[in-house]
Design brief:
114 residues; mainly beta; 4-stranded antiparallel sheet; 11 strands; 0% helix; 57% strand; globular
Length: 114
Amino acid sequence: QVQLVESGGGSVQAGGSLRLSCAASGRTFSINAMGWYRQAPGKEREMVARINRAGTTDYADSVKGRFTISRDNAKNVVYLQMNSLKPEDTAVYSCDAELGIFYWGQGTQVTVSS
């Protein structure tokens, strides 16, 4: 099993920045990829960014150029640096870890005001 704990959410004005962190514990040696998803009220969950063990990244078109995902394999932490935040980025952000099956964190709220 893997446990994931997110931190770093909060409220910010449009144009501001936040950095989310997700710390993994447990069978971390088996983790292939980690990522961030978000879900806004009334909307489906969407992938925001993913990174595999080799460091290859993938981003949703809506965040390209504004968000950066990174991973510290030694510390088993994945980060999401979010810049130029927009009100439409408001959502609960959750991190996941893939080991053949998926594990999820509890989520952290990000609120961007205009």
